[in-house]
Specification:
This protein is of the alpha/beta class and 155 residues long. Helix content is 26%, strand content 34%. It has 4 helices and 8 strands, in the order βαβββαβαβββα.
Length: 155
C-alpha cells in the first residue's frame, strides 16, 4: 500500500508557478545549490512539472497553463508569499544568490528571535527569506526581545 506522504517529501511542499521555469531552475541551482530531480515536458516546450531538491526539501515548479488557478507573481502584481530557507551559512548563501541574480530586499541582520535573517528577490518575482538559526530562546526571552524590537520600531 502506498504511503500517504511519499518517501522524500514533507507534509508541506512549495509549488511555484512562473513564466520561465527553465531560467528559474538555472537560477535556483546557482543561487541555492539545488539539484534537479524531475522535469516533465508540457505543451509548446513549457515545463508541466519540475522538482528541485534543496537540502532536505523539495521545490515544485511549473510554467503557467490556462487551466491552472495558480498564477506567477508578474500576473498578480507581485509576490503573495515568500520561501523561507534555513541554511548553515546565510551570509555565504546571500552572496551566492546575489551573484546568481537575486537582489537584496532586506539586508541580513541578527534578529530578536535568534536567527540571522534577510530577504532576496529572485529575477522571477519570488521572495526568498534566508536564515541561519544562531540561538535558542525561551518563550520569555523571545517575548522580551520582541517587545524591545517593536518599541525600537515605534510599533
Amino acid at each position: 500500500m502506498a504511503r500517504a506522504i511519499p518517501d522524500g517529501y514533507h507534509t508541506v511542499t512549495v509549488n511555484l508557478n512562473l513564466k520561465d521555469v527553465e531560467k528559474t531552475i538555472d537560477f535556483v541551482k546557482q543561487a541555492f545549490g539545488a539539484e534537479e530531480n524531475i522535469r516533465m515536458p508540457g505543451p509548446d516546450g513549457k515545463v508541466a512539472h519540475a522538482e528541485l531538491q534543496i537540502g532536505d526539501s523539495k521545490l515544485m515548479l511549473s510554467d503557467p497553463f490556462p487551466q491552472s488557478t495558480v498564477r506567477p507573481p508578474s500576473e498578480r502584481g507581485g509576490p503573495t508569499a515568500s520561501i523561507f530557507l534555513y541554511v548553515d551559512d546565510c551570509d555565504a548563501t546571500f552572496e551566492q544568490a546575489t551573484r546568481a541574480g537575486a537582489t537584496v530586499e532586506m539586508p541580513l541582520q541578527d534578529m530578536f528571535w535568534g536567527d540571522r535573517f534577510g530577504s532576496l528577490a529572485d529575477p522571477f518575482g519570488h521572495i526568498w527569506s534566508v536564515a541561519t538559526h544562531k540561538e535558542d530562546l525561551s518563550e520569555e526571552e523571545m517575548a522580551e526581545r520582541s517587545k524591545a524590537a517593536m518599541a525600537e520600531m515605534g510599533a
